[in-house]
Amino acid sequence: MEFSQEIIVLIGLMGSGKSRVGIELSRLLKMPFIDSDKEIEKAAGMSIPEIFERLGEPEFRVGEKKVMLRLLESGPKVLASGGGAFIQPDIRSAVKAKAVSVWLNASLETLVERTSRTDNRPLLRGVDRAQKLSQLIEARYPVYAEADITVVTDEQSPRHMARIIIEQLEKWKRDRDA
Description:
CATH topology: Rossmann fold
Order of helices and strands: EHEHHHEHEHHEH
CATH class: Alpha Beta
CATH superfamily: P-loop containing nucleotide triphosphate hydrolases
Number of helices: 8
Distance between the termini: 14 Å
Number of domains: 1
């Protein structure tokens, strides 16, 4: 099936695999891949940890909203969104109107393991990682559940996840066009 006219937005918590799976998915679908976090960093001229440190999370969310809404206006792509993007009502509405959303759902154990590999996640600095991720799961998973497609990423390679997403996208498109 053809997805060259779609914007596919990957949503989920940090560590769910949005960037790594997104790269594989874009390669298999022969579509551009955009990581919204990288675009936010370009627009701000600083890293996300620096944005949080210098400007705070509320200002980061303002910039995230501007970047996401801009990215949703231009052509087909695979777009990895930040973990908090889909939580913002304006972004969620725009995604629902202009894209197909795919929630990469991962267990707490998977998220803790994957996020422990790096220290560039501002929301996890100086806190109990498992406790903070558990709080984020409780707050965000009910909103993520509004995504068009949900796939579980635990114990899956990025390539395998990309193939599962393509199968789910084909089913979603058949159902939508029926």
